[in-house]
Amino acid sequence: MIANTSLVFAEADHAALREHLFPGDGLEASAVLLCSRFEGTRTKLLLKDWIPVPYEACKVRLVDAITWPGEYLERAIDQAEKEGLTILLTHSHPGGFLEFSQVDDDSDAISVRALCQAIDRAHGSAIMIDSGEMRARLYNSLMVPSFIDLVTVVGHDIHYWWADSRAECPPMAFTSEMKAYLRRLVVAVVGVSGTGSIVAEQVARLGFGRVILIDHDCVELKNLNRILNSTVEHAIASTPKTEMFAQAITRMRGENVAVSINDSLATRHAVLAAAEADVIFSCVDTKEARMIADRLAAAFLIPLFDVGVTIPTYKTVDGHDAIIDVAGRIDYVRPGGPTLEERGVYSPESLHAEYLLRVNKDAHEEQVNLGYFKGIQDEAPSVITLNMRAASACVSEFIARAFPFREEPNSNYARTRFSLSGCEEDYCREDFWPIHANLLLASGCSEPLLGIPSLGRRQSNAA
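The line above is the sequence of JAB domain-containing protein; the predicted structure tokens follow.
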């Protein structure tokens, strides 16, 4: 069953919280988590900030008990009320007991009730054991608790901890157990064309419980040679790419797996649909779409896998066109790590240039730079083999993060580039790029959405 509720951490925040909760003395420690809340068809809590309770401030710190002053609760209430956040009271279980005890229940009956009375929304509590694994729960208006189905930590590795099972490690990659695991997760594929249709085919057959397809284009005759599952009938009927592929997934997997969003990612509707996902694959061909995917992943703490291919060309001395390279790029972006912008995938200048090109319909000479070939226009390039190579590498990158199988740490592979001309493959670590504070991190649905005025609630309603 797909997780209806989840609590999501960026890796750095989870590591800092773990260090505080387990200082090495074997005694319980506590903290207050402040989470942005996203309500779609699923509920997501996104750790935005947390308040450590100093060890010396605790009246009691034992192996199996802790009490701490109310002033830290009051600080949390002030911040949560101002920013619309959900509060989770959190403490460690040094003994490794990953269940809420009767003492925890009794404490919540007082503390969480006070929270709910101070701020009229659901709040809760969480526990952590030394491995970093967590359990969390929310209370309704009658003070009845329900477990948060899934706790996710998005880092170089991606950790999924389920409330209904204890897992020391994820299933082995490429096994049927991995497929069963993926049935509980939601994936978004943004761009369902050359590389995107191949990514969508893979994630559907891997077994993701829900596949969200986002694209605003329709099937055309000229792209039948590179979009999986498309047919002449689809092209003649101008069937939206997402609807065409959703039908294919339904034939493959049955009902209620595919979700078709026939809209541009540059719309509020599409952004909020993608925010439902546990992982996003960006298979787009514009700088603007990559910028939005980049911001979306940061705001909702979603791991992002971005794929691109290119075939640069040049003019020979006798005037013929020739290929310089046949290349692909896969970037893995974790919340809090270097963004696609910091990696140079797009920039304010390139976004502006793309905008000018889009509004200037006569700029044919520059339009060639938007296609597969750099320097040549080709309406129906035969690039499915290149797309297959890149799409497979992109999805395999996710598997390596969620079900680690590499000989080296995943931190070595923030970017993978391959050259089919040179028969080469190389990799970059994150420290290859600068990292700046990301104000969008865990901001969720704060207005304007993703910090983009055109995605704000008022503008979208007006449109």
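Note on the example: Confidence is low (pLDDT under 50) at residues 364-369. Residues 369 and 453 are 28 Å apart (CA to CA).
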